[in-house]
Design a protein that fits this description.
Length: about 250
């Protein structure tokens, strides 16, 4: 029987070890642990845990909330926050990362287990919904020769060749497809669009941006600059190394 694998992110070493022991006693596997938010993002990418327990207030350059946003948005992994703070301002800020749970320290093993089980269930339902939407997009939206997509616009389906798409920008539950002379707003997530587009031509460079690689004119001060107008698009820190590896350089 496979036990759920959980990544622990807590900058207090003693608390982190205590959480690891509690998880083991409750029958979960610890997929890794760290006290640094950026390392948490890398561990989540490498280990692909079933869930992340994330302290909100980490003593690192990146906050726990920022790390949770990347892990939730880019990887679709459920996150449950751990915090000693229960004031409204912290709660409101934490909501932006769309956590599947929120535990105020100190907590009991019973509270830990119940929050984990609820988050794992909700995460499983999200995966089912995402897979179904991906299946529908692949079977209906994509052209049979895989060089175009049909986009719903003003009550009709418009054929758009992949080569026409310059970049895609996230807009909450929608995304804006930017072409040379027009744009289309489409309902869906960046994960869905990333899976739909050919990986040899497109790359996600930020949690909110996908670009066509042959439209990149230059990289300057952490931004991609596109051909034809010089539009600047920010590069997320976790995407920079992969982007540089894909761009031919001499």
């Amino acid at each position: 029987m496979n036990h759920p694998r959980i990544l622990v992110v807590e900058d207090e070493a003693l608390i982190r070890k205590d959480i690891e022991r509690s998880l083991t006693l409750l029958g979960y596997d610890v997929a890794g642990s760290t006290g640094d938010a950026e390392e948490a993002v890398h561990l989540a990418m490498e280990q692909r845990p079933d869930m992340v327990l994330m302290d909100i207030r980490l003593r690192s350059a990146m906050t726990g909330i920022d790390a949770a946003k990347v892990i939730r948005t880019d990887m679709g992994i459920p996150v449950v926050f751990l915090t000693a703070f229960s004031e409204d301002s912290t709660l409101n800020e934490a909501k932006l990362a769309e956590p599947l749970g929120y535990i105020v320290k100190p907590f009991t093993e019973a509270a830990l287990r119940s929050n984990i089980e609820i988050a794992l269930f909700k995460g499983g339902e999200e995966v089912k919904l995402r897979m179904e939407r991906d299946r529908l997009m692949r079977s209906v939206g994509k052209g049979q020769d895989d060089d175009h997509v049909f986009i719903k616009h003003k009550g009709r389906s418009v054929r758009v060749a992949f080569r026409e798409i310059e970049h895609i920008e996230a807009l909450k539950d929608y995304a804006s497809f930017h072409l040379k002379d027009r744009r289309y707003v489409v309902h869906g997530t960046m994960q869905e669009f990333e899976a739909m587009l050919p990986g040899r031509d497109f790359m996600r460079i930020h949690r909110s941006h996908i670009v066509r690689l042959d439209r990149i004119q230059s990289i300057d001060d952490g931004d991609v600059i596109l051909e034809g107008g010089g539009k600047r698009i920010p590069i997320g820190r976790t995407y920079m190394s992969r982007l540089l590896a894909l761009i031919p350089q001499v």
